[in-house]
Amino acid sequence: MISSKSLTKMPQSMVIGGGVILVTLTIGGIVIYTESQKDSNNENQSYSLKDFKDGSYYAEGSFYVDAVSKTETIGVTVTIRDGKITGLETDQIENGEKVVNEYMQKFEDKIKDMVVGKPITEVGDQTIITGSSLTSKGFVDAVENIRRDAVN
After folding, report:
1. Do 26 and 92 belong together in one domain?
2. Contacts of 1 by beta carbon, 8 Å cutoff, 6+ apart
């Protein structure tokens, strides 16, 4: 059993077809998957932190939930300063309106720990939290839109 104070880090990575890199990192029993995709020219998009304008940005991302045969939407607000994420909020969006959702709050708490303080360039890769993998995909979709909007 892992104590709450101990952290185990076991990074693994491999290249899979189509220029996708899959990295698995285990930290204290939570598995985080990171996937980096190359653009249509098989090249990673590259930005400098100075390419991003300071400010708050909002975008939505969607994901499909087979269990309920429904497309869900996550609203993401990111605050950027000097190319780094300094603030983050997420919302469940239903019929164009924000709704209170305890699962979204738990997701936000976990994802904040992962991305606040990091350069937005590092957060652009797919980041999936076990147990919230579909929400994570919608989150990443929204962050990628924010990243494009925030470029000078």
Report:
1. no
2. none
